[in-house]
Amino acid sequence: MIIAERKPFEEITEMIKGYKNILNVGCGGCTSICLAGGQKEVNQLNAELTKENAELKIDSFVIERQCNYDFFVDLDEKAPKYDAILSMACGAGVQFVAERYTSIPVFPALNTVFCGVDRNVGWFEENCRTCGECVLGDTAGICPVTRCAKGIFNGPCGGTRIDGSCEVDPDTPCAWTDIFNRLTEQGRVDKIIEVKPPRLWQNQVRRVLIQEDYKARYAE
Amino acid sequence: MSDQEKKAVDRAEISKMLDKKAPEMKRILNYCVHCSICAESCFLYMSHDGDPQYMPSYKIINSLGKLYKKKGNVDHEFLEGIKGMVWNNCVLCHRCYCPIGIDIPRMIDFTRSICRSQDVFPKLDEGESWL
Ligand code: SF4
Ligand code: SF4
Ligand code: SF4
Ligand code: SF4
Asked: Using beta carbons and an 8 Å cutoff, which residues of B are at the interface with A?
């Protein structure tokens, strides 16, 4: 899931300065689950904003997903009545809202931080940088792109501390030590000495994915 | 008592929302022939060994359908009661297929909106589960 956090309050007030009639749109998907942009957070932000500026008219609305236009039916009716929109979805959702209502300025209320997992209520950890060429099969399910400070594919780097932490940050376990240990546990530690060729990083341009079965449908 | 339970239900607001979608609702309530084709296309129904609670038509008829029949004349307990059906039992993946053309996820999405309008939604920060 996508993890986000609220922008500093001052940054939000600065962005919406001058707009008097705003719709704050929450997302019922990831940002609800990561407790950053669901209905409760929308209401909370609006309460703070009106406390700061009593003249501001800011309404709340939550759609189940801002990354799929199937969920925009009711928003389509509301959006034109406002002179600005604040979105509490991830960056993908904010852009989709902005693309739909091009004449209305759309501002992000959140910073989209990473793609990760819920360790506990309110506790999230980054696990994937969506590199597009997953190597987890060879690394015992531990991502070297995300969890190794140098993002190396043929680790460890040689700087691992004696206690198994990363040389860059003593509070972070060395990803490659964890990979070594888990591969050993699984009886396939030989995987670690296979040299991985350099990666052709492909994320310079916007990626578009159409699943195999749907290619014919969108061919034109 | 949490904040969500404190707010009194605004029945007029629910009824206004329902009126706007009346034609779509009539279609599902009058034309669903209980063919169960939607059930077989819902992965949640299939992965729960055919538990009717996950059947797309069941979810709609027992949440939005009841709301519509009661003309929005419901209390907080009712909305809390259907919450599980429209959040936990459906991920809004839009994969279910209805030969009559009923847009089930759209209706579940709409039911969530009605719940949201009354401040009823999963209390994720209180450990309430999503799935
Ligand atoms: S818009 Fe972003 S936060 Fe909302 S459901 Fe889609 S990916 Fe998740
Ligand atoms: S290798 Fe890491 S960043 Fe790449 S897809 Fe796999 S988990 Fe994600
Ligand atoms: S110590 Fe481990 S995690 Fe840190 S950079 Fe080196 S290989 Fe990567
Ligand atoms: S949208 Fe809901 S009812 Fe339809 S297939 Fe997905 S989970 Fe099942």
From this structure: 92, 94, 105-106, 109-110, 112-113, 116, 119, 121-122, 124-125, 127, 130
